[in-house]
Please model this.
Amino acid sequence: PGLPFIVMGHNGQSAWAFTAGGNNLVDYTKLELNPENRNQYNTAVGWQDFKTKRESIYTSATDTGIIVDVKQSDYGVIVDEDSTALTATAINWVGYQTRLNDALSHAFELSQINSYEQFRSVVTNVGAIDANYMYTDINGNIGYQLASPVVRREGDNLNLTHSYLTGVIEYQFYPEDSLAHSINPEKGWLASSNNIPEWNSMYDGFYFADRIISINELLNSKDKFSTSDMYTFQFDNKNRYLQMIQNLIIETLNNIDSIEIASSYASYDFSFDTSSHFAALTIVYLNKFKEFTFSDNMGELNQEVPAKWIEHLAQVDSAGWFDDRNTENVTESMLDISSRAMRSALEITKGKNWGDMHTLTMEHPMAVIPVVGSLLGLSTETEARGGAPGTLNASFYSKISDSSYTSVAGASMRLVVDFNDPDAATIVLPAGNSGNPMSDHFMDFYELWKTNGRWNVPLSKDKVYAKAVSTLTLIPEEER
Model:
């Protein structure tokens, strides 16, 4: 919203959209501080002075603003200092080395795309955004392009979250032609969902393999699909990713003598609808499994362990993480910790379904302001929410407590375009067509978004005017 170009959409000839790529575009560098002068840091050519820039952050509580001295190094802005260890941490974004003017000029070309070749050229030059771009056109072509620049990272510098470098950061990039791309693959479909674009060591980042499993199953289920199928897929609440641990959960339930529940769980389809009890049990079990596995070593930091650790249970087991350091003369196995987690989960979820624990409140940013938020109706009622991070109808939630999860992110736009009839294209946003609380279109899409409804957005002039409910005419001043 607010950008002067069409980031995702179609022009009647081509359509384009993207999702986050997961590629690493940020470097953290740990610097050694001079014990005699902490305004200096060590480099290959000796101690160098930090450059300092004074910033004023103005607030309603001060006349002069909050004064902050920002330190700048050759490795980026300093974001943390450890006076005891005499170290500082610098952060640097790849985008600082790209030209904003070039990125903007290419972004304005998005709406003019009419071929796969032009699509590739445009999206790989829209700056250092971390994006997987998809393409299709009226001629039946489908295409993909990793739009994010990919930095050459060598040897020990390759790390999923940090790169401790030994020289001034001057990024070298892989050529655009070498970045992952595809046009009309033999299998007949393309998808992203934050999955790694291809198995190649050049893609240093953090990727997710959960939703692509559902896409793979659904798009291989038959040869031809309709727009109705696309609507259904976008609202799919089945978490096929978590099916990988179904056997472990059944084994665990049997191990704690919950034989009847184990038998029922064997037929669970991993639907994360609001009415599902097993969805609630699965999520709480996984959170308790993680807590009981890592908290003895990591304390509260166990919450920071990403959900994808379950893909690596064998490695976690062989590394000794399941052994509880708080129990003497006992070496716990994976099944021991899993059983402890399941007993806790069964107690917490007794009589509860996923919708009892997982909720959504759609809020305007100003809804937190006392009185104003309620008077202007800036938020919806808190409601039960289906879905999970691994479902195509994605719901990324924040854990409030063991039995309470609030949805904080999900589908920001559902768009379906059939080039057999571009004027029949449909779209829905989570809240409304307007973010202005005084507008009739504030929150006007919420019910559609919540129930998988769609709003038709025609493109041809006659269809647009036939559907218009009001017209705004802008007249240059000299013509008045």
